[in-house]
Specification:
The structure is a single chain. With 768 residues, the chain is of the alpha/beta class. The chain has five domains: 72 residues; 104 residues, OB fold (Dihydrolipoamide Acetyltransferase, E2P); 266 residues, no CATH class; 41 residues; 246 residues, Metallo-beta-lactamase, Chain A, CATH 3.60.15. 46% of the residues lie in helices and 17% in strands. It has 26 helices and 24 strands. Helix 1 crosses helix 11, helix 8 crosses helix 9 and helix 10 packs across helix 11.
Length: 768
Amino acid sequence: MQIGLFSRNLPSTLSYTEAATALIIGTLPLLFLSKLPDSNYYLVIGSILLITIVFIWKNKFSRFLFLIGMSFLWACWHGLEITQKIDFLSSDYRQWDITIVSIPLTQDDPIKRVKIDRVDGRRIFPSLYASWNFKQNGHENRCVGQQWRVTGKLNPVHASLNEGGFDRQRYFIAQRMIGTLKTKHVEQVSVQCSLRQNIIDQFKEKILAQKNQGIIYALMFGERGLISIEHIQLLQSTGLTHLIAISGLHIGMAYLIGYLCARLLQFFLPIRWIGENLPLLSGMLFALLYAWLSNFAIPATRAIFALLLWLYVRKQSFYCFSWQWAIWSIASILWFDPLAILSDSFWLSSFAVLAILYWFRIFPIPLVFNRHPLFRRVVPLIHLQIGLLILLIPIQVLLFKGINVMSLFANLWFVPLITWGVVPIVFGILLFPINAWHNIAFRFIDKVIEIGLEPLVYLNSFWVEINAISIYIVLFCGSFAFILLFGWYRNYLGLLICFIVMLFFTQSKNQHQEHDWCLILLDIGHGLAAIMVQNQQGVLYDTGNRWNKGSNAKQQIIPFLKHHQVIPIHAILSHNHLDHTGGVSDLIKQYPWVSLRSSFGQPRHLPCYQGQNWQWGKLRFDILWPKKLSETSHNNDSCVIQVSDGYRKLLLTGDLEKEGEKSLVMQDKYSLKADILFVPHHGSSTSSTPLFIRKVQPTLALVSSARYSPWKIPSDKVYLRYAKHNIQWLNTAEEGQITICFKKEKMKISRYRKEINPRWYHLWFGDR
């Protein structure tokens, strides 16, 4: 194995860089596979690789393909291993030995992240994690490091899946979070807290006394649970979220502080102690200390890994280019944890490092700026931020659906304040246990953060949303960067033009799908949110739920509308229950022109009662129920609407129950027959009577429900009633977002988990 990019002396030998590239290429399919290969596939691929070794191993290209195949199998094995363990561990009640690894920021917070040590006495490797919802008794103290033995069952990992929304299920799998433990017997094995918890407890009161306690907590210990929603939104919209997660920048700064401390110490040491090894070791120890304080969070661990590789290369006799070190680091991380390929933070950090190296290679700083001392310090920082702003646009738009055109100034202002004004003080607090010093230091940090946040409020207004971007655009930008770097455009200009034309054609085709209108039932858990889209305008039926820190409108409805560039013009609220009206305020805040219609007579609401109808494009809306407005607005006062395009009919039922169904059926002046029925009351046993089903005669029943509903809905009895009539049953808990598009009499159904975005990590894990 050779060191350089190309091994010229030994043509059949791969260089480290070529081997690393093969490993990255082999792991990449794990991000896109809809289904992981089974054991038979492993036998076939293994046989092919064995033949490759025996017959054509001396061929360099064959070795390259061999490494790609091996890394592909290695990555798939990790995926299979975690999915099989989820299925097995969730199949029955088991005995779990667990260790608390997350810090309860308040004693009222029952949800903890735990590491699974053993299950039924068998050690778990590689490490797996779970959430544990356990409310303590008054005399119990929970802390990180405690070990517990519990008897319970695992609820497999599951999340809502919608276009434009955050892919929480992929995030959980990347974190090796396999679900939530539901326990019926709990025994505390060890009451001792970890050293890290004890250190945090020493500073907790002083941190909580500060105005910006959440950001200080995150910068010191990597725990972001106390950061306010306002601060999260402010930092995200200005491109500064990377600063509140202990990652590469912070680890690098910790290394520099340790390195400089050792260099300072060497002034007072004998000459035999003066050398490079002591500062390098000191810097590494400081970096490890900071990573340990963050509980070796995944971004910090990756940074430590890259730093260790850099130190190793630095001590070797061969020369290594910076971009080679970056490729080796990425490959090494993927070799030890192939599931990192699913992590957004992995892609952001990898792209950022490669972007910096690429920028300085293609656009070096002109020598004229090195003549003045001030220019030598300021220009590189500005030059770096300009490069990151330009080169990270594709990945930022893909992940965050927009960019801030003023993020250059936000980073130029806030990054130096944090790296040079806060992180060194944090280490000063940790190294010098003097109470008076701590009080001054925390007040200073809080003031620095407060000063740093003030301009961001203004820069926040420059956020530009760009929602229609494909991953093909990102791949094209990356390919174009390499074409410029290696000068391939000189020889392959025609091929490049063809690629651009094909890309444009693909995008145009995707944006102009032929349909008259679409019905979208969003996957929001327990609640209801449906959207009817026509000519890029939308009418909503219910807006889902809300809770202390968010709502379905913020997390699912608005991201979907932005993703498809749909403008909502009207929202119908079936009845005044929180799981149906919870998102109204956030929806109106984002789209103030939206008109509202309801059956509970609120001011500025259009009325929804029997006999009303209107036409919207190709769709006719007829209100069938209730007979009159009702201020109480119970389930049986739900606004029932029949929607028709002249070919098919849709019946929207809200939370109608047996009594309401009976009253509706007894009316002869309205035909309830519909092709598509929204199953009343999420499929509860209090609704969907046999008479009502026979009267509607649907061919498709749609249900909006949560997998782990405390009310155990939809009811099995209700499901069997629909199955008895051979009615197709689609549940958002099983399918994710459900999209139905209509073109005259034709109807096309697309489900998120199966047709829209089929991925192995989107599957339904565990028993149904």
